[in-house]
Amino acid sequence: MDALAIEDVRKSFGGVQALQGITFSVAPQEIVGVIGPNGSGKSTLFNVLTGALKPDSGRVLLNGKDITRWPAYRIARSGLGRTFQIPALFENMTVLENLLTASVEHNWDGVHERASAVIELLELQRVAAEPARSLSGGQQRLLELGRVLMREPDLVLLDEVAAGVHPNLRKLMLDVIRAKREAGTTFLVIEHDMELTGEICDRIIVMDAGEVVAKGTFEEISSDAHVMEAYLGVSVE
Ligand SMILES: Nc1ncnc2c1ncn2[C@@H]1O[C@H](COP(=O)(O)OP(=O)(O)OP(=O)(O)O)[C@@H](O)[C@H]1O
Questions:
Q1: CA distances for 60 relative to 32, 38, 68, 109, 204, angstroms
Q2: How much is the ipTM here?
Q3: Residues lining ligand 1, judged by CB closer than 6 Å?
Q4: What is the CATH classification number for the domain harbouring 63?
Q5: Strand, coil or helix: what is 222?
Q6: DSSP 3-state assignment of 72?
Q7: Tens digits of per-residue pLDDT, 52-65?
Q8: CA of 53, closest atom in ligand 1
């Protein structure tokens, strides 16, 4: 059974057709990248998957369950987590408190042990008692990922999670994503950084103007001159 199946999902904003019939699926423990130019519909797709937006038509299945019209909190409780382009942290709370509060409405059993494990995994021990606002941009992104991991989701949506992150932290972040995948988590990743996409994604979905215009491995996508030039503005030799 697919971890995620998206079936002919459509969403318009007035005259703008942000999603024009998106169909693809993600297998358990896959890492799938979603790339495409600004305005191609990536964020709208994520918002439909999390329940922040209702699609006009089409279906979304999470582990085989139709979650299409469920409220966002119910979808989150069913095992879908996401990070945001701009980390959504409690800036005046400590790193530890940010992790603990992520478990509100989830599961308080063993919450301190889980927080300790996440702090260790993300190498945030030295700043655990510091307010989130004092962290570097990269550490804030790690903490945002940590808040998602506290809820032990089956499927994680990552929105440009490594943008502007220092290379050392970026490597740590990719290692954590790979380790979580090995442990059973599935990832859908919006990414502008093609290098990162190539490093961690098993498959890539290319979107343009609300449609899926190509699918394949990084090698297949990056050898498709039409995709690279027309949709990513990258000139292929
Ligand atoms: N709430 C909204 N109201 C009206 N139009 C919207 C709304 N949200 C998105 N759109 C439009 O839908 C289209 C898709 O936008 P979306 O933000 O999903 O693209 P994107 O691929 O995530 O872009 P970016 O890479 O810049 O984040 C765009 O034309 C955008 O202007």
A1: 16, 23, 5, 30, 19
A2: 0.95
A3: 13, 16, 18, 36, 38-44
A4: 3.40.50.300
A5: helix
A6: helix
A7: 999 999 999 999 99
A8: 1
**Domain assignment present for 132:** no
Residue nearest to atom 31 of ligand 1 (CA): 39
Q: What is the largest CA-CA distance in the chain?
A: 55
Domain that holds residue 13: 1-79+156-161+192-237
Q: Is residue 17 part of a domain?
A: yes
CA atoms 177, 45, 136, 115: torsion sign? negative
Q: DSSP assignment of 173-217, as one string?
A: HHHHHHHHHHTT-EEEEE-S-HHHHHHH-SEEEEEETTEEEEEE-
Which CA distances in Å does 204 have to 14, 84, 141, 207, 214? 29, 20, 23, 10, 8
pLDDT tens digits for 177-221?
Answer: 999 999 999 999 998 888 888 999 999 999 999 999 999 998 898
Crossing angle between the packed helical segments 167-182 and 137-149, to the nearest 10 degrees: 10
Q: Would you state the structure tokens that stand for residue 49, as one six-digit string?
A: 């998957």
Put residue 39 in one of left, alpha, beta given phi > 0 → left and psi -120 to 50 → alpha: left
Domain total of the chain: 1
Residue whose CA lies nearest to ligand 1 atom number 26: 38
Q: Which of 198, 159, 178, 185 is nearest to 121 (CA)?
A: 178
User: Which residue type does 176 have?
Assistant: V
Residue nearest to atom 11 of ligand 1 (CA): 18
